[in-house]
Amino acid sequence: MRAPDALTTYVREALTSGGERAAIAAAARAAGWSATETEAALASWVDAPGLPPVPRPRGVVSARDAFRHGLMFFALLLVASHLGLITFALIDHFVPDPLDTLSGGEGRIRWSIAVLLVAWPVWAVTSLRLARDAERDPGQRRSAVGRWLTWGALFLAAATLVGDAIAIVGGFLSGDFTLRFLLKALAVAVIAGAIFLAYGHGRDRDDTA
């Protein structure tokens, strides 16, 4: 949790004037700040003997980061959605439904392949460059835009998994639990689960870095 700026500023001034952390925490609590807010504000500063308290690194925002992370996650959205469409079309082809009179499966596959041929390299290149920059400069991991977009992708992946589970249960209860339905639900779960695992790994550690 990020402490409010007013409390963080107060803690800095109190530490600079020589105040004890326990006394500062007690004063903040008496003023109405919660224990979590107070701890976060105190944790924002590191004691430096003979020097003013040193601020811990905080998230940064830049137009360059917004462009690169936005492009990466937009490409990821295209890759995930059209990979799912191709999988659905292949399932429809190999597990046909006599009652399904919709056509155009080949056209949908060609269009999705075209999207993947463009979007996948964009996602791969931007991901590799962001990872390489983070290796050279760990401060790049503090991009506020990157964190927000990553958590947004995790939210969409988690929501998809929940919705997929609901669809499976609903299909089972309504008697529509066919092989075709199960394969499509499994495909959605695999794609969303892969995104959730890939971008969720170490996320709490990076957010506290």
TrEMBL record:
Signal peptide: none annotated. It comes from the Bacteria. Keywords: Membrane, Transmembrane, Transmembrane helix. InterPro entries: DUF5671 (IPR043728). The chain crosses the membrane at residues 71-91, 111-131, 151-173, 179-199. Residues 66-198 form the DUF5671 domain. This is DUF5671 domain-containing protein.
